[in-house]
Write a structure and sequence with these properties.
Elements lengths: L2 H6 L1 H12 L17 H17 L2 E5 L3 E6 L5 E7 L19 E3 L2 E3 L7 H17 L6 E7 L7 H8 L7 E4 L2 E2 L3 E4 L1 E10 L5 E7 L7 E2 L2 E8 L14 E7 L2 E7 L3 E2 L9 H12 L3 H9 L16 E2 L2 E2 L1 E10 L2 E10 L5 H9 L9 E8 L2 E2 L5 H14 L6 E3 L11 E3 L2 E2 L13 E3 H20 L4
Parallel strand pairs: 3-6, 3-7, 7-24, 8-25, 9-23
Antiparallel strand pairs: 1-2, 2-6, 4-5, 5-26, 9-22, 10-20, 10-21, 11-13, 12-16, 13-15, 14-15, 17-18, 19-20
Length: 460
């Protein structure tokens, strides 16, 4: 129905995405009232709103926290929930090309945000444009909501709700996988603080490059100063661990991992856990030894939580050690958990709180949490979106559950829908992130048909 319109705009779609990727929109929380997440995020938002305005859409900037693009008439609102902020990326991380200089090679468009979530946002915007250009009659309004703090603390979407903006009657978030997501695990972020020292050593610094908790860390180092009478130990380098003698009494040990999204820790290699295992081998401490024994650093269903793995239809509980720091003689460990949908978050929190029985000086802080999302597979929304995906692709993939968290859980009657295709490599948060150009255009066609279906249903 809308395919021909979208095909004619293929070059324009690619061009717009390339322009949007060039904004280094890593969300940085500031005290500036007009740009609470930093200038690059504000510029990305203004670019997208101005692009939409040039198409004839209504737009609104909500105090720099987020914005929206809207068209159509009617009492009810169809929501599309995307974000323009991205996770950090630098050329030295291992990128083949500059992550903020979009590059097309072998039918793939490379750049940070190409699949998470700038590409899907642009696909959604041009899907809306295809509907507008087609002159098809809708009986609901359609609103594309653009967040700027999704990768961190969701202050953007919270602001949208706090100022009383309209809640969509139905909607989707183009920030995960096709054919449709019917369940998203609960998310729990934990900060652990413990007085810590190593015998005859002074810890000068621990550096994980301010790694976000929802990212498997690719780098972590510790700098140690030895007593003047103590010779530097004989350490063994590995393919993941190296060290450098900074002077006759100072040693820096560095672990190198592989970055990945915390929802898929198995796709990465955690530099922090590599370093802690290595450190405890050469400089053992009671605290680290006990943490390793109880399985606190384990990736899947840490053994101290339960005698058997905690899992259900949404998958197994996963844990990412996302932060390690040292300040004022306190060791800080940051964890990000993805908890199966039928397991209560409070149940897991009680298990971590109980760690103070093992370590009386331990402090536990639950810094953030998101309740799981669960929509029945046979619900009208899931079946409608899945059917449209099947019709446009010929693929018969079934709705799935994920460990990631999307804006879909911020509103009732919303689910995640694309844009990663079944069987394709998930490049979200990865080095050399890309979107397949053909898949980008196909997702635009899928979204156009989905928006039309949702926006022409009879009002209840």
């Amino acid at each position: 129905m809308f395919d021909k319109i979208i095909e004619k705009q293929k070059d324009e779609i690619i061009h717009s995405l390339c322009e949007l990727i060039q904004f280094k929109s890593v969300s940085q929380e500031t005290n500036q009232p007009d740009m609470p997440f930093g200038k690059p995020c504000q510029e990305a938002l203004e670019y997208t709103l101005n692009l939409a305005k040039s198409f004839g859409f209504r737009t609104k900037n909500l105090d720099g926290y987020c914005g929206y693009i809207e068209f159509g008439e009617g009492e009810e609102l169809v929501g599309i929930l995307g974000h323009l902020d991205v996770v950090p990326a630098e050329l030295q991380d291992g990128w083949t090309t500059d992550p903020f200089t979009p590059t097309i090679y072998d039918h793939k468009l490379y750049g940070r945000g190409a699949i998470d979530d700038k590409g899907p946002v642009i696909a959604s915007l041009y899907a809306m444009k295809a509907l507008l250009d087609s002159d098809k009659k809708l009986n609901k309004r359609v609103r594309l909501i653009l967040g700027l703090n999704e990768e961190k603390s969701w202050k953007c979407i919270k602001h949208y709700q706090e100022i009383g903006e309209e809640t969509p009657h139905v909607g989707f978030s183009p920030d995960a996988d096709f054919p449709c997501i019917y369940a998203e695990k609960g998310i729990l972020s934990i900060r652990i603080h413990q007085p810590f020292s190593l015998d005859n050593l002074e810890i000068l610094e621990i550096d994980c490059q301010h790694n976000a908790l929802n990212v498997v860390p690719k780098y972590c180092s510790i700098t140690l100063k030895f007593d003047s009478e103590q010779a530097l130990p004989s350490l063994e380098k590995t393919d993941k661990i190296d060290f450098e003698k900074l002077d006759s009494h100072t040693l820096k040990i560095t672990a190198h991992g592989i970055s990945a999204h915390a929802a898929h820790p198995d796709l990465g290699e955690n530099a922090i856990t590599l370093l802690l295992h290595y450190l405890n081998h050469y400089f053992p401490s009671d605290f680290l030894t006990k943490l390793l024994e109880i399985g606190l650093l384990e990736t899947t269903s840490p053994s101290f939580l339960n005698d058997t793995p905690i899992q259900d239809e949404s998958g197994i509980l996963t844990s990412n050690v996302g932060f390690l720091g040292f300040e004022n003689s306190l060791l800080e460990i940051g964890l990000n958990l993805r908890i199966p949908v039928h397991t209560a978050l409070d149940e897991i929190k009680s298990k971590y709180t109980a760690l103070t029985n093992l370590f009386p000086t331990l402090k536990i802080d639950f810094s953030a949490q998101q309740e799981p999302l669960f929509v029945q597979k046979n619900s009208h929304l899931v079946t409608t979106l899945t059917k449209i995906f099947h019709q446009k692709t010929g693929l018969k993939a079934e709705p799935i559950a994920i460990g990631g968290g999307t804006y879909a859980r911020a509103f009732p009657n919303c689910v995640a829908f694309g844009a990663n295709m079944p069987g394709k490599q998930d490049m979200c948060h990865q080095v050399n992130e890309f979107v397949d150009v053909d898949d980008l255009i196909l997702s635009c066609k899928i979204y156009a048909n989905a928006i039309y279906a949702l926006a022409t249903e009879k009002e209840e």
